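Course assignment 3, question 2. Fill in each field.
Student: A.L.
Task: Predict the tertiary structure for the chain below.
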Amino acid sequence: MRLTLRVWRQRDAAAEGAMSTYEVDGISPDMSFLEMLDQLNERLILEGEDPVAFDHDCREGICGACSLVINGDAHGPERTTTCQLHMRSFRDGDTIDVEPWRAAAFPVIKDLVVDRSAFDRIIQAGGYITAPTGAAPEAHSTPVPKPDADFAFEHAECIGCGACVAACPNGAAMLFTSAKVNHLNVLPQGAPERETRVLDMVTQMDEEGFGGCTLAGECATACPKGIPLFSITRMNKEWLRATRKARR
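Answer field:
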């Protein structure tokens, strides 16, 4: 395959960025998108040019590091992570635009790499449970109803990639925050912090500068792990209950 890449290049958050055009040839349809970028970077290094900086880690679709907007879609045309997106999703001769996540809370570090530490601070604000130290308890010592366990596992699948923020027209982080709140709040182990968790994490989310949620639904559509939109509704109910309790 022969492709034309238009890649966002930016030295740092303070610098002006622009799209740079590169021609790549000999691309196998079985390559992942990141392998294709690796091939481009190998050529740039041999030519004495600065390689394109992009984030990645496991390349197995579970770490959430590979944050790219491809032809206007978070992670590209398939509902998966960028590292699991293969070049067979494109056609020979295509022009592909590659950009970083664009959100005020995700400043550009370099080229396609953005700082997503805002997510870390949201988790730090309430993503924990009170648990006694010592040996781990027996797995069956705290019964969890099957529907609650399934609900928790569904939301624990969130990998914190930020695709929800990148896809949202408002740059909101409600789907991410709701996934982290809900998967702990539904379990008995998370019950002691149920009210403070949702209040603290939502407050931190707002302080990070994410946009307001208007339930446009683009976040759930772009989520590679399929976190459902009703997760936000569930968190809103938790937040209202906690707010009323705090005011008493």
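Instructor remarks: Helices lie at 33-46, 117-126, 146-156, 163-167, 174-185, 194-207, 218-222, 230-247. The mean pLDDT is 94.
Grade: pending
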